[in-house]
Amino acid sequence: MSPEKSQAPIDYDRLMQAHLARVFNERDASRRVKAIAEIYADDATLYEPPDATAKGHAGIEEAVAGLLSSLPPNFVFTSIGPAVGHHGVGRLRWQSGPPNGPVAVTGMDVAHFVNGRIHSLYVFLDPPAA
After folding, report:
1. Which of 25, 57, 78, 118 is the most exposed place for a label (fewest CB within 10 A)?
2. What is the CATH number for 107?
């Protein structure tokens, strides 16, 4: 039996919902750093549009901290339905804006998992509605 078949199945929804809630919605840096260490592989890479790349836990923390500091303090990221995935790749649609307010942006995260943790995360932003 190959090592890949002996691994436990990936709970894409649990992991991607945790990434959204505990990393991208976490304003407390110490809690966010702990979550990154639990959810992301040590050598993980975050790819953000248009061409930003952050590598490793420290790089991902820096990128997320920069993003959160650029947003109004009441902005939150909310999933649009459950995450789905197969063959080690999952996706989660999300929206962001003030709670109970207008949606400011929508997008999707696509993650590649290795050993049950996010190894690569690609952030896609939807074009603004016309």
Report:
1. 78
2. 3.10.450.50
